[in-house]
Amino acid sequence: MADSTSAGTATYVYAVMRDLSTPRLGDIEGIDDQPVRIVDHAGLAALVSTVALDEFGEEALHRNLEDLGWLETTARAHHRVVEAAGSVAATAPLRLATVYHGDDRVRALLSEQQEAFTTALARVEGKTEWGVKVYADPEIFAEDPAPEPSASSASGPGAAYLQRRRSQRRSREDAGRAATARAEEIHAALSEQAAATRRHPPQDQRLTGHAGWMILNGAYLVDDEAAAEFRGRVAEFGEERGIDVDLTGPWVPYSFASPDQES
Amino acid sequence: MTDPGIARTGGRHPAGYGSRPAARNEPASLADILERVLDKGIVIAGDIRVNLLDIELLTIKLRLIVASVDKAREMGIDWWEHDPTLSSQDRDLAEENRRLRQRIGDMEAGRQESIDADGQSNSRGADRHGDVAEAPRSAGEE
Question: What is the ipTM of this complex?
Answer without folding.
Answer: 0.80
